[in-house]
Automatic annotation (TrEMBL):
Residues 5-54 form the Helix-turn-helix domain. This is Helix-turn-helix domain-containing protein. It comes from Nonomuraea cavernae. It comes from the Bacteria. One of its GO terms (molecular function) is DNA binding. It holds the Pfam family HTH_17. InterPro entries: HTH_17, SinI_DNA-bd.
Length: 60
């Protein structure tokens, strides 16, 4: 199984949001993330795709 993962700074750049905003989206469950080890948070690219698709559906 293959899943492309992004770092927090990479995901921030894609969404063009601050670290604070991204972590709030993760805490609220709007964007899924995983922990690698005890401190390395990674965001699946599919989680960002899902989040953006949901936002686009809300606007339409």
């Amino acid at each position: 199984m293959s899943c492309e993962l992004m770092t927090v700074p990479e995901a921030m750049a894609v969404l063009k949001v601050s670290r604070w905003t991204l972590y709030n989206l993760i805490r609220s469950g709007d964007i899924a993330s995983i922990l690698v080890g005890t401190r390395c948070r990674r965001i699946p690219v599919s989680a960002l795709d899902t989040y953006v698709a949901r936002l686009c559906e809300e606007v339409a």
